[in-house]
């Protein structure tokens, strides 16, 4: 016995009962005395003998397909099995004859033909088994389809009976509704006549309602105008009262300021008088001192104390003038001029101060008189304005009283109009009902 081990990338060799002959390999790689290699055989069993799908396709071509298999794609028609087998043999023989030019074809062995027959029988048996199982499945599917069809037919018959019963009921109800509709038509005709009469009355009431509404609108506009005028007058009175209070506070402030200014003026006047008296006394004392100092050593010299006067005095007193003593005399004169105050300039400064104080006093008096006059004018103006405000307030109070009376009358008229409108609306609603 020969055994073979299967490895990846190698073909399987079947053992046989007789010893193979060497050197009888064909050009295509086949040899006698052994089964041809499966991977290297060009025509397969499917091409030679056909497949079960071909048998099923040939079987189903003549018979109608069930509804459950209608979704499958249509199969292409094929030739019968013996024709395909014959065509495969012819194809193989032709291929062998075509290769005879290259190398002579050896005769087939009896072992190869026996194996082929066994394989063909086994293939036919498996094909018939597949066909039988397929027929069983098809019959089961057909039974299920028949059951579902019977069930749907029963349901359809039941639905048809129910629809017929509903139609009979609806026909009876339609007759009843037609009869009631005729009765309702008579009632509607009667109600239409009543509605026309009610509409005529309603139009008359509507015209009356519109006239009353227009009157009410006019009264409301007048009332709004009166209320706006009252609000405006109240605002004016508030503003006038505020201005009166403000002016009163201003008058009080001005009186206080005026009293303070008067007291300040009197104080400044008294202080200025005292200052003037003090300055006058000081001026007299200074004049006396100046007269005493100036006339003590130089009785004959005038106020200038120039060199000419000194020369004249010396000449009258028979003073012998020397050039050596002139420098000493000049230095003495300058010293006296620097130390002693001038009797002519001091009285002039004091008089200027007195004049300035007099001017300030006159200005204060004029300012005081102007302030007094202005205060009296403001006082008179405030009094007149206060009297005018009092008169305006009295007039406004009277007008507000009259306006309030008019508003009350208009409010009563408006309430009466509203009551009449409500009564009209109620009457109209009853007519509509």
TrEMBL record:
Any one Pfam family match given in the protein's UniProt record, by short name: Fez1
Subcellular location: Cytoplasm
Key word tRNA processing present: no
Principal location listed in the UniProt entry: cytoplasm
Stretches assigned to coiled coil: 209-296, 400-427
Keywords recorded for this protein, A-Z: Coiled coil, Cytoplasm
Compositional bias annotation for Low complexity: 63-73
Chain spans, region Disordered: 25-129
Gene Ontology CC terms, in alphabetical order: cytoplasm
Annotated TM spans: none
Matches recorded under InterPro entries: LZTS
PANTHER family given in the database record: LEUCINE-RICH REPEAT-CONTAINING PROTEIN DDB_G0290503, ZIPPER PUTATIVE TUMOR SUPPRESSOR 2 HOMOLOG-LIKE PROTEIN-RELATED
Name the UniProt record assigns to this protein: Leucine zipper putative tumor suppressor 2 homolog isoform X2
Organism of provenance: Spodoptera litura
Classification lineage: Eukaryota, Metazoa, Ecdysozoa, Arthropoda, Hexapoda
